[in-house]
Structure formats: structure tokens, C-alpha cells
Amino acid sequence: MEFSDLIRTGRAQAKLLRGPEAPPLRGTLCLTGHHLLLSPGPQATSELWLLLLRSVDSIEKRVASDSGTITLRCKDLRVLQLEIEGVEASLDIARSIEALSSLESVITSFPFFYRPKGLRLGDAWHFHPPERYYKRVARETNAWRLSEVNEDFSVCPSYPRAVIVPRSVDDGALARSARFRQGGRFPVLSYHHAPSGTVLVRSSQPLTGPQKRRCAEDEELLRAVLAGARPGARGFIVDTRSSQAAKQARMTGGGTEAKAAYPGWKRLHRPLERGQPLQESFVRLVEACGDLQQSTDSWLRRLEGCCWLAHVKEALSTACLAAQGMEREGACILVHGAEGTDSTLLVTSLAQLILDPLSRTMAGFQELVEREWIQAGHPFQLRCAHSAFSHARPKHEAPTFLLFLDCVWQLGRQFPLSLEFGEGLLLALFEHAYASPFGTFLCNSEKERCLCEVRTRTHSLWSGLNQPKEQRKLRNPLYAPNPLAIWPSVELQSLRLWQGLFLRWIRPPEPSEVAWEKVWQIVTDKEKTKLSQPTVSASEPQL
């Protein structure tokens, strides 16, 4: 089907209302296969307004005698209102937006058509391959190797082609271990903590089932993890399900690692919410933030009732548990839930931010997101199909990646000098995960991206974000490298609502945001002054 078949009316006169802080725009509204445009006309001073249709989460329409109103609720939490001349034109445009914003085909999405100036196809896709992180691990220990057992994605469809595994375990054993793990997600290295010589490993649940099945190769793999750390090392299995949920999973073919089968490993249950309950928490929070008529008491009750900050607390607490086990207990950590593609990645990525100074740099954080979320198989296309406004009943949607970004924001607020990036990067990642002109967050796995030729036919988000003009919005001007672990306070009184995201479109800029821009100006002026000063030669006396 052609895009033109879905466009009932391509043009109309309209007025756009963008929120309480932005003036209305009047002009000609145009609809294309991927965008909604409003041209103010040749005499207007404002620029062309553009909206990627993929960012529309829900649409509501009302008609009067000779006009119509369309309300667009966007995945980035914006609420836009269009007042359109003509009832028929209003209804046609609304139906067209509904059809074009919900196309499921990946290869007809905008990233396959986006060709910005200054960027070349293929740029930045090579920035963060698994081989790059392996080189870092290989400099620290020889106990691990890079395996291409999954080169054709036949062993595990949600893993990348290459994974880091214990050197003493051959590919045949890995393949047999994969058959014993849900979705084929056998234990692989997530992070090597050089100071303690311990490792963070992730996987999915073992398929023990009601018969309490065992797998010799899977047991061998986890023994090799401990043997590669240090003599006498022990390990903790952090299961992100409750013990009751794990028992129920065993009745349907899943389960947990038996103590007798995995000596040296101790299981800890740290349940983290996922799936529909997490999505509903997100929806209730956004609804509460959008109600401008409520009293302060009502607002505080709704904020507590949605439990979003409780989810933030639990995620950070579990990540701290994993990080403490490595740094303070000298133990290896295996993290898994059921599938190993959601709360597992949340914990492993946050634990690395707490422990690893390189993950807190701009380049290191981009690599962390690429390695621990995108290449690790978080199903972005399913989880981010809708945001908080969709009227459709949630199927696979869950804001797990947004919860990760919120936790990172909490870390940045508690340690304002320790992250090289600022809130701007986190907001950009949130927006691009849900709707983007770049191909980085497309599909659900590396296998799907290969089938759709995403790396050769679309641009990488990292190439766009690393442009010099973008860096000012994304970097932290106060950054000072911190070689130590950063241990956040996870008590609820220490956590804050991320106003820069959840209240972004419904309130004026915070004084702190204005101050942030002034800090950038001071830093920029200071750098210019340094560059303009003549250098002092070695022979000249210095005061």
C-alpha cells in the first residue's frame, strides 16, 4: 500500500495550540507519509512546524458546525491541539493521522527515508561493537573469550552475533546451555570489575520445570564463571522475581537454579515490577501530572498511589545490591528474571553506572546503552509501541527503558559532578526510543535489525547526537571525573519526581534550568578566555 492511499486530505487551514507556554500558530496544515507540517505563511516570523507522525500516541476529534478540533497526545508526553477549518477536512485528517501513525512495517518507517545533511549511511554503527568491550576485558583478565557461537542467531535469536563467555567453556557447551535457558539466553558477561576481579553476568531463567531438570553444560558454565574470578570465589544469583513467581514459573517449564546443582552460588530474590503493572504505573503518573486543577494533597496522594517512585527505589536498590556484592563482598553476580530482556538489563546497566567511571562518560554511557539494551535484546519495538496516552489495551508495552533513564537521572541529581552527560541526553534517549528518525531503536533484536538491513539503510542515533552543535545540550558543564563508585541514597525521601520529563510541557522552565544555561555560558566564556590568552614561554618569569 502506498502512503498516498492513506491520506484522505493532504492540506487544510488550521491553528495549532502547543501548550500554556507557547504561542498559537496559524497557517496551512500539510500531511505527508511520515510528518504533519504547519506552514505559517510567507509573512510570518515563525519557522515551519514539524511533527513525526510516529510520535502520536493517541488522537481525539471533535467537530462543530463548520470546523473540527483534533487533540494529539504524543509519546514524548506533549499534548497538541489543532483547530481545523471544515468538518470533512478535520475528520479526514484525523483518520489519516490514525492510519499513518500506527503502521507496523519497520521498513516503511521514517528512518529508512531520513537523509540528513552532514551524515553518511553507516557512520557510527561501528562505534560500539561487542569486540570493543571485549578488548577492554582482555586487558584486565584472560579468563574470558569472545565467542561467535551465535553468528547466525540460531543459538539465541535475541543475542548479538558475538558474546563474551568463560574461556574454558567451548561453543558446543554454550549451545547446550542455551537450550536449557528460556529463549536461548545462556549466561554471558555483562561487566568485569577489575578492582575486585569479579564479574556481572546475565541470562534468562533455567528451564528446570516440574521435573527439576538439570543441564551439565549450564552447571559447567557457572562453575567456570567462579573459577575465572579468583580461587574460592562465590556467587550470588539475583532473581528479579519473587520466590512465589519463580515457583509458579517452574510449574510452566521455567524455574530457578537448584542449590545442589550450582555449588558456590546463592540465590537472592529481589522482585521488580514489569509488564502491564509497570505500564499502568506510568499511565497513572502522567494522568496525575496532567491534572492542573487538583489540590496539593490530591496531587501527593496520586503521586504516591501510582507507585512510580517506588519502582525507581526498587530498581536502584537491586542495582546497589549487585554492585555491593561485587565491590564489597568480592562475589560474582548472575542476574536474571524470566526472559532476561527487561528487569535483568535494568539491574546490570545500573550496577555498571554505580561501579564503572567509564560508563559515566558521554562515550561510555552511549556504549552502555548500546551494549546492555540494544544489542542485549531489549524488545524496543514491542515495549515502546505506545507511551502513556494510548487507548489500546497494553499487550507488550512497558516503560522499562524509561525507568532506567529515570534512575540515571536520580544518580545525576545526587552526584551532579560525576556524570559527563546531563538531563538533555536522557530526554533525547527517551524521545528517540519511542519515535525517532534514526534506526538505532528499531526492531526487537540484532537478528531483526539484520533482516531489515537497519545498519546499512538507516542512520545511527549516535552519529546525530555526537555532532558538535548537539553536544552543548547533552554534556554536563560541571563534570569532574570520579574514579570511585557512586552509592545513591534509595530512600523515598531522597528520590524526586523527574520534573524535566513528566512536567516538561506543562510548566515554565525551573530556575535550576535557567541556572544550568548560565553555568554553560560561564564555562564557555572561560574557555574562550583561555584560548585568547597568549601562552607563556618557558624562559619568561611567571608570577
TrEMBL record:
GO terms for biological process: negative regulation of autophagy; phosphatidylinositol dephosphorylation. It comes from the Eukaryota. Residues 124-502 form the Myotubularin phosphatase domain. One of its GO terms (cellular component) is cytoplasm. It holds the Pfam family Myotub-related. GO terms for molecular function: protein phosphatase binding. Belongs to the protein-tyrosine phosphatase family. Non-receptor class myotubularin subfamily. This is Myotubularin-related protein 9. It comes from Puma concolor. The lineage of its organism: Eukaryota, Metazoa, Chordata, Craniata, Vertebrata.
